[in-house]
């Protein structure tokens, strides 16, 4: 598959032009023209790049790429080493941030919902990035936290009464603690995100709405995997997801 065709397809499939984002979405580093073997991962770290080199990837597709708004744009130090390895091995780097959070089929929020048995009823937040809905059967906060730990293989940080009944859930993967007040206004029982801030703890305690911080990396492993599987099914590309462990 030609690089330009893949780039155009993903821009359309993920509806890239519809988003105002903090980074460029799509092809960030140009590599070889033909793409057959792809590696996916959460963040374009040096470790993931080396794994892609070892896998002889033609393209690396990630959720967290480069060139974030407000960053120093110079290609020096750590950035130079990362980009240098991609260029040295002629590997294309594609990155999709908000488009990969929101997509209804391969998005991080959609993938997390499938994993946890959540059914979406609507969206909220700027650019409709958050989702609210219900869990399959009413449970307690403690049992819900156990489910998350079992599925994500990571103990979540939980703020709230462990015996609290849970039925209505709002969620947004990654660093989405800023949406918590909007989730509270929806009348949910619990909000699930990747991270939590100091002030968020107080908001959870005072509102009575539980907060589950399940890990930024842990909650965002599944969208990019689903995207890679989608490309395999539709274009016959070889796909391998590589997970670089991250405790945050």
Supply database-style keywords.
alpha/beta, Udp-n-acetylmuramoylalanyl-d-glutamate--2,6- Diaminopimelate Ligase, Chain: A, domain 1, 5-stranded mixed sheet, 6-stranded mixed sheet, 11 strands, 248 residues, 10 helices, 25% strand, elongated, 2 domains
Structure notes:
The chain has 248 residues and is α/β, with parallel strands linked by helices. The protein has 2 domains: 3-97, NIF3 (NGG1p interacting factor 3)-like (Udp-n-acetylmuramoylalanyl-d-glutamate--2,6- Diaminopimelate Ligase, Chain: A, domain 1, 3-Layer(aba) Sandwich), CATH 3.40.1390; 108-219, NIF3 (NGG1p interacting factor 3)-like (Udp-n-acetylmuramoylalanyl-d-glutamate--2,6- Diaminopimelate Ligase, Chain: A, domain 1, 3-Layer(aba) Sandwich), CATH 3.40.1390.30. 37% of the residues lie in helices and 25% in strands. It has 10 helices and 11 strands. The strands form 2 sheets. The chain has a 6-stranded mixed beta sheet with strand order 5-6-8-9-10-7, sandwiched between helices. The chain is elongated and about 55 Å long. The protein starts with a helix and ends in a 7-residue tail after the last strand.
């Amino acid at each position: 598959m030609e690089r330009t065709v893949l780039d155009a397809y993903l821009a359309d499939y993920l509806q890239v032009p519809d988003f105002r984002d903090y980074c460029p979405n799509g092809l960030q580093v140009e590599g070889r023209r033909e793409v057959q073997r792809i590696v996916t991962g959460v963040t374009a770290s040096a470790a993931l790049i080396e794994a892609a080199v070892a896998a002889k990837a033609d393209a690396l597709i990630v959720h967290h790429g480069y060139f974030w708004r407000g960053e120093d744009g110079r290609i020096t130090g750590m950035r130079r080493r990362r980009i240098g390895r991609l260029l040295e091995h002629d590997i294309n780097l594609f990155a999709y941030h908000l488009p990969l959070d929101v997509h209804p089929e391969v998005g991080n929020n959609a993938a997390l919902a499938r994993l946890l048995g959540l059914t979406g009823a609507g969206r909220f937040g700027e650019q409709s990035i958050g989702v609210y809905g219900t869990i399959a059967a009413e449970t307690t906060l403690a049992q819900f936290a156990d489910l998350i730990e079992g599925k994500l293989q990571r103990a979540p940080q939980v703020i709230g009464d462990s015996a609290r009944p849970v039925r209505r859930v709002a969620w947004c993967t990654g660093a989405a603690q800023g949406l918590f007040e909007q989730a509270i206004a929806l009348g949910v029982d619990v909000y699930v995100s990747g991270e939590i801030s100091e002030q968020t703890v107080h908001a959870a305690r005072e509102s009575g709405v539980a907060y589950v911080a399940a890990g930024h990396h842990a909650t965002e492993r599944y969208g990019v995997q689903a995207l890679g599987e989608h490309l395999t099914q539709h274009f016959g590309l070889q796909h391998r997801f590589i997970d670089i462990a991250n405790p945050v």
